[in-house]
Amino acid sequence: MTSSSVALSPDSDTVEAAHQTVFDTGLAVRKEVLGEEYVNTSLDRNRGSDGEALQQYVSEFVWGSVWTRPGLDRRSRSLLNLGMLVAMNQHHELAVHVRGGLTNGLTRDEIVEAIVHATAYCGAPAGLAAMRVVQETLTAELGPRTERN
User: Lower Cβ count inside 10 Å, N or C end of the chain?
Assistant: First the structure.
């Protein structure tokens, strides 16, 4: 029997430990990008509910498996998220990822340009709606736009 035909069947403790490691890593990244308070509130709000499994999945697989991959830095991942969230009209998540983008080093101007760029591909209604969310979030996080910022 060759090694490629041998079925791996790790014991459940090994699999659980692997999941826990990726979850813990993802949770740490998620908190670094989105803020500990936001993440803890999301987890607490869903604890003991039907949404708890989804919060675990997102922390483990989105943040632990995708956000930790080599090839793109967090700043680039944040920029990509802004465009995708505009395209999907996911305004709540857009506000969250504007704040995450600021944490990851995006500037106000880069965020605005990302929305303008996404508008060219997603259409004016999507872009205009997104910009309302972005403007509100940037003002809350950075204050009103001035010549200096």
Answer: N
This prediction has a pTM of: 0.86
Continuous segment of H or E residues that includes residue 55: helix 52-57
Domain ranges within the chain, ordered by starting residue = 13-69, 72-149
**Which residues make Cβ contacts (< 8 Å) with residue 98, sequence separation at least 6?**
82, 111, 133, 134, 137, 138, 141
Which of 68, 78, 69 shows the shortest CA–CA distance to 107?
78
pLDDT of 76-132, one tens digit each? 999 999 999 999 999 999 999 999 999 999 999 999 999 999 999 999 999 999 999
Under DSSP, the state recorded for 71 is T
Neighbours of 113 (CB within 10 A): 14
- Give the type of residue at 47: R
CA distance 70 to 27: 18
Please tell me the distance from the alpha carbon of residue 149 to that of residue 136, in angstroms, as a whole number.
15
Does 72-149 carry CATH code 1.20.1290.10? Answer: yes
